[in-house]
Amino acid sequence: MEVDARADLMCGIEELAESRHGYDKAAAYFDGTVQEVFSSVRLRRALAANDVDFRINFAKTPVTAVANRLKITAVTSPDDAQNKALADLWKANQLNIEAPDLHTKTCELGDGYLFVLPIQDDNDNVTGIEMYYNSPVTVRAIYREDRPREIDFVIKRWTERGCLRAEVLYDDHTERWTTERNSKGDQPRDWNPWPADDEDEESWTIPHSWDFPQNPAFHFRTARPYGTPEHYAAYGSQNAITKLTTTHMGNVDYTGAPQRYALTETKDTDTGDLDPGDWDDEDFPENANATGPTDQGDPSSLKSGPGELWLLRGFKAVGEFKPADPKAFLDPADWYIRALAHVTDTPAHLFDITGDAPSGESLRRKEAPLVDKVKERQKLFGATWTAAFTFALRLLGFDDPVVDVRWAPAATVDDLQGWQVVAAKIAAGVPVIQALMEAGYRQEQVEAWLSESDEAELGRRVQIIATFATAAQSLGTAVTLGALTEEQVTGILAGTVDAIELLGQPVEETA
């Protein structure tokens, strides 16, 4: 067999090897296992030998902040049969669990892959579809140089029973390769065809069962052509935070047990008071029951305790070294946490351990970069999900399937200022459905509300909510100024809520 037959295989293996370090590094920062950076090799070894670990992982937050808002609410089709098939696919492949996991891992590493393969019976009839996640550590899509949006081929490599295995997936067929046991697999000669059927030597090349060009591996990514971990920009800040917190913990030991000193008069100093006890363990009777006295080799005969008297002969002064001020560590750590939030477009309040968070317009302004990022990920991930489900439906025999992937809003309006803006838009003539969708509510939610009442009625309810919110804010100001008591405001609001429930009922037209 010509070596050229292995050209794509070796190209893919080289790409996997080159990208592996970046993925491992991203995973280490996400898991919080990155070691402190030391200028002293000796100090690093000493801490490693004693398994000292004071790491506090903030680098994970930029990943979870995005992934937690990537929630698919529905995958539908206008065709009833296709819609049922999509529901069956979702349930059979446990995508309510797998999809969030895929989103999180893709945000963590920057890339992720979804394999979509047919399940066939003995007569080659498609009876189902398998959809499962693959890590970019073992899978890599190779894109065409002349058409950068198109996948040339996908390689998957793994270890099985001491042998390296590899599959090279094209649009129309898959090639299977293997090595001998304990082979490094870094040379073309290490790889041999791996037949799927031992009785058929040519079965290492498997034609795809579908009659249209399509690679069964779908590439999820945070950018094109390859993604970047959501927390990539946080690496430097996390290193600084880890070093500051670890060094601070070392300083805590000196706060609890300060380092002391004694100044001596050279000519007449008696250091005997600092010597160990006069008795060794072997000078004591046998201590069979572990109840008798022993000399533990204390470094000094001076004892610390209430009522103890220390006699230091010949020492002119004693004292202790003052530990470093904790602010020297904690204040810079706070700065690096804020820097980490800034460089990753993550709201700073997500790192605030006090639990304080902004609200209203301030919250929307501070979360705007994160919301924009989530919307971009929804576009990228949504396009890949649509392609994967479309391919699955075609495998099931549907011609020209139509798939619609719906996401939960990246942010929704649920505060006073937000509802005031919505009400103002409606009052200015913006259609109710448009105003509510701009506020972050899904189209199907608004349509469900409109099915219960017409657009004018829904607009009236929005106005009621906005008016009530404004009144509640004004009453809160009145309490602050002392014009009203909290009990009075509570009574007013309780009565108002009852009235709103009546006002919120549909208005019946009279003849």
What does this structure look like?
The chain has 511 residues and is an alpha+beta fold. Among the domains are: 260-320, no CATH class; 412-511, no CATH class. Helices cover 43% and strands 15% of the residues. It contains 13 helices and 13 strands. The strands form four sheets. Strands 4, 5, 6, 7, 8 and 9 form a six-stranded antiparallel sheet that branches. A three-stranded antiparallel sheet has the order 3-2-10. Helix 9 (416-427) crosses helix 12 and helix 12 packs antiparallel against helix 13 (486-503). The chain is flat and about 100 Å long.
From the structure above, extract its key features.
511 residues; alpha+beta; six-stranded antiparallel sheet; 43% helix; 15% strand; flat
Give average pLDDT, whole number.
Answer: 81
The count of strands amounts to 13
How far the N terminus sits from the C terminus, by CA atoms, comes to 90 Å
User: Could you state the oligomeric state of the chains shown?
Assistant: single chain
What is the structural class?
A: alpha+beta
Q: Biggest sheet: strands, sense, closure?
A: 6 strands, antiparallel
Low-confidence stretches: 500-504, 507-511
Order of helices and strands: HHHEHHEEEEEEEEEHEEHHEHHHHH
Strand content: 15-25%
**What's the gyration radius in Å?**
34 Å
Shape: flat
User: What is the number of helices?
Assistant: 13
Helical residue percent?
A: 40-55%
